[in-house]
Amino acid sequence: MMDKLELQNDLKALVEQYKVAGMAERNHLEKGRRKLGKQLMSLSDKEHEKKIMDTMAKREMMTYSDVFWLFSVGIGANYILNRLNLKASHVDSVDFSNAKDFYQSQYALRSDKGV
Question: What is the pLDDT of residues 21-47, one digit of tens each?
Answer without folding.
Answer: 888 888 888 888 888 878 877 777 888
